[in-house]
Amino acid sequence: ETGVTQTPRHLVMGMTNKKSLKCEQHLGHNAMYWYKQSAKKPLELMFVYNFKEQTENNSVPSRFSPECPNSSHLFLHLHTLQPEDSALYLCASSHALANTQYFGPGTRLTVL
Amino acid sequence: RKEVEQDPGPFNVPEGATVAFNCTYSNSASQSFFWYRQDCRKEPKLLMSVYSSGNEDGRFTAQLNRASQYISLLIRDSKLSDSATYLCVVNGMDTGNQFYFGTGTSLTVIP
Known about the structure:
Oligomer: heterodimer
Largest interface: A-B, 19 and 24 residues
Distance between the termini of chain A: 32 Å
Mean pLDDT of chain B: 91
Low-confidence stretches of chain B: none
Radius of gyration of chain B: 14 Å
Radius of gyration of chain A: 13 Å
Number of strands of chain A: 11
Helix content of chain B: under 10%
Order of helices and strands of chain A: EEEEEEEEEEE
């Protein structure tokens, strides 16, 4: 399935690095999301974009910076991360905000 | 109080068994309900939406009880391939359309 793609699939970075995660959806959806999934915890919503406009920022630290240039692409820019930021970062999209969400394969991030 | 609560399990059942999971939610205004399945180290995938009247898809049956604020998933005739983590998901129109995920219930079907 290639409805929602994410790159890279795995990322190891130091605390002083800057990197970006990319998400692309080929489903014609209007809403896109970033989630963080840590071990033994439920998925945590980070950001929501609807028609390229950010509608939710769930008190995410500023070291995470989202960017949504169009309805098909979503980025998560990372800088000066902490080891506790190591997690699976999942992108999702939906036709509208209340509709079923479809997830990408995720980026497994390790911060050293 | 958590928005969505699930028994984490693990549930270990033999092939062919029937197994049921429950999930409770705290927001009585919640509008949409789903079950997702997540395989190890993979992304969550929609298993089925949950409708007020209950719905069935093959071996899977989902029920919603609004009065008691819980959702259930019944799996009949379990297959080895059903082994996964099952996530309960609730959306509330009064919470900015945010989806709330449970921590998941782990199922292992044993030969």
